[in-house]
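Exam revision sheet. Question 4 asks you to relate a sequence to its structure. Input first:
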Amino acid sequence: MTIDEFEPWLMQLLIASGDERIGEVRQFVGSGESSRRGVRVDCKDGATLYLMIVRTSPPERGAPGARSAA
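Answer key, structure tokens:
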């Protein structure tokens, strides 16, 4: 799953949870808080959660630090 697929899925999951503590769910990319991507959750009690989305890839074969298949 790519970040472009995961981000809206995560947002929909949070919105559909029906948790009464959640006030608003939105992206925080390009909104001035950070150049990184993720989801911002504003809670009704005044708390704000930033869920940063990161990705990793397995190392290429033969790259330094890559494990050999044994």
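Marking note for examiners. The chain has one domain: 3-52.
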